[in-house]
């Protein structure tokens, strides 16, 4: 897949309810394992959080089914998955970097006039 189309396609897949397919493509592109995806946050997380990533079981959890179709949340949490797999494992990814990662995809999607 050409890289100039990659980011908009990922966002489109998430918006279309094909989150697992988007995560598989992301994992393949970044050469990491595909994280699991589930609805419902772990008990320790605040109700206001829309999503979280748990490295122990490689799972992206989202607050509810509506959040499942939110590309910002899915991509933000995928960034945490990606950073947890980094070779140095020292920098696991800041919230600001996760936001930037997600917004790059969304901006690429919007640039196509979608």
Radius of gyration, CA atoms, in whole angstroms:
13 Å
Rounded mean pLDDT is: 88
**Broad shape:** globular
- What's the CATH class, please? Alpha Beta
- Tell me the series of helices and strands, N- to C-terminal: HHEEEHHH
Number of structural units classed as domains: 1
Q: How much strand?
A: 5-15%
In the sheet with the most strands, the strands line up as 1-3-2
Class inferred from helices and paired strands:
mainly alpha
Helix content: 40-55%
Give me the CATH architecture, please.
Answer: 2-Layer Sandwich
Question: Low-confidence runs (pLDDT<50, min 5 residues)?
Answer: none
Task: Tell me the total number of β-strands.
Answer: 3
Distance between the termini: 19 Å
Q: Sheet bearing the most strands, described?
A: 3 strands, mixed
The number of helices is 5
Can you put this structure into words, describing what you see?
The protein is mostly helical. The protein has a single domain, classed as 2-Layer Sandwich (Zincin-like), CATH 3.30.2010. It has five helices and three strands. The protein has a three-stranded mixed beta sheet with strand order 1-3-2. Helix 4 packs across helix 5 (about 95-110). The radius of gyration is 13 Å and the shape is globular. It starts with a helix and ends with a helix.
